[in-house]
Amino acid sequence: MTTPSASAAGYLTLDRIYGEPKEFRPESWGPAHWLKDGQGFTTLEVSEAFKSHPKSAEIKDIVAYDPATGRRDILVSARELLPAGQDTPLEIEKYAWSEDTEYLLVFTNAQRVWREKTRGDYWVLHRKSGSLRRLGGDAGPASLLFATLSPEGRRVAYVHRNNVYVQSLVDLGITALTTDGATHIINGTADWVNEEEFRLRNGLRWSPDGRHIAYWQFDTTGVREFQLINNTDGLYPHLSAFAYPKAGQTNSAVKVGVVDATGGPTRWFAANPDPRNHYIPRMEWTPDSRRVLFQQLNRLQNTNDVVSGDPITGATEVLFTDRDDAWVDVMDEMTWVDGGTRFLWLSERDGWRHLYSVSATDGSVRLLTPGDYDVLSIAGLDEAQGLIYFIASPDDPTKRALHRTTLDGAGKLVRVSPADQVGAHAYHCAPQARWAFHTFTRFGRPPVIQLVSLPDHAVVRPLVGNDALRAKLDALVPCRHEFFRIPIPDGPALDAWCILPPDFDPAKRYPLLVHVYGEPAAVMVVDRWMGDNHLWHTLLAQQGYVVVCIDNRGTPSPRGRAWRKCIYRQIGILAPADQAAAVRELLRARPYLDPARVGVWGHSGGGSMSLHAIFRHPDLYRVAMALAFVADQRLYDTIYQERYMGLPDDNVHGFTQGSPIAHAAGLQGKLLIVYGTGDDNCHYQNCEVMVNELVRLNKPFSQVSYPNRSHSIDEGENTKRHLFSTLTRFLHEHLPLDPSAK
Length: 742
Prior knowledge:
By secondary structure, the protein is of the alpha+beta class.
């Protein structure tokens, strides 16, 4: 087996995958917004009026479409978003409409805070007058967060320097709703750990009647800070510090309250007696504005109380409780039914992740989706027809499809996605679910996006075909892939996929590379487009590697509660054992795989799993490439680590044995560790303590560090190409294609 020349037609190269401009970039579309009545939508399209502008690709019109007729109207031209004295219209990062579409709110000049660009400038266009004005007064550039239109669309609430403000869109008058925001007091948004683990970012909630705003407050006093060191942007290091509670350490104190939108004191909901040992990950108003419902988790995250709060008195009562012996998941968004008297809820209380209807008055529960299958997410609601749409995988956990049932709980499960489209389906439904944007992908095939009607799922018109990308993929020398299950001793069969070389010959011997994640935060074996990772795996297969990915128990696959939660208190213990058992079975059942040439790689949790693999099973794995890993579980944050492991003092064995660093003495093969020194999530500290332990044990290894790169290791020119060149080179050297090579 020889590596194809970089110029050989039909073969992938690192330049083709990671070079700029990217050759295999999928078409972009949107973002699209359904209008409130569900009878139209708006999206962004490149403006013809600025096609000769140097930044023409970033200059967009906002275009409205009638889904029934296809009629197209430019609702807001790019020229209307041209600030006075400038020659370039606003670059639209996000936008929002008032309900009557008279006002347009535009987010631009967006700056990354942690994972996402959440800080920037907000401008408001009054369509009738053509007035375009920047919000925030003298707040300064790129300093506002989470600007949110009021229900009537004439005011905006936002966060500036940890305080909450309301600004009139009529006269631009600004009212400060909080004044105590400071370094340790965060109003209207979240601290680092709640943003990362609960995706709690926008901490403002307008009441439906527009009279009040509910908001979160976090007090980080007493939370230990972590410091990141930037050594490359100046003569001397620059330090940045942020509150980061590591497992078992002190959390922020959190509470929620309500303030009048015109100003005045905040009415805090009745205080929890232990504010640093519970979480409030979600909060919503009832549709009648008379109550605020918030989800309150205990620190172990095995009890989720839905608390009903009186916005006038602050009195609270527990309306509904979800419990589990392991952990409970947060319900991301309330869907209200029956005139706002009930809401929909996903729970594993009967062993499967089912959909329930819960009364907002007495907490009574009605099961809507009986059966031995999991509901992954709610997709849409058609109350007029009494239908609820959701994503499920009742027949094959590696697929995703739209299903529906009735809101009264008496209906049968009905598949809505076309039966002949086998892969992964996703939907963005209009209000009332008459229409939906439908995205369909398969393994190795990029997304196709269509406008469909519901409930018949008839294609109204194509939106994105990715024809050019599909043609480029079709021109490649093909590599066969398959989805299958691997039996393991003392456990269920594990789902897996495999990519084989194009000239595959079962009589030959091939090196095996395993791509792993293995933790409860993500599932990897899904029949969908995997982007650049898929292309890199295909490149390796074209060169002669067999690439396999396996989902062990404990991953969030739709295979029932027992599958997902058997991993409780044993992260890093059960999963590596499952992975190793599966690889051993592969080697037994597929003699074309060379047991002397087995490698593994992964990122984040997959980096930790790669370390476990080569440390704990040195007879099996000869090469490991571990990126952005957690070396010691005590070094990671409270919310994630304690959710799955409990408290460190109560699970000493689990935290110790589940940490790769405890097993470093087992290293015999070739190890590459890769880290970004600016990783705010899994800190570079993990890399350093692992290096120290390997040095202490006199274990040889290779290391590459990327200055100031974050957890994704993708900032900076040429970073991604360099990273994957490094990985590819390491494989060629230590997991050679020629079995006779050194």
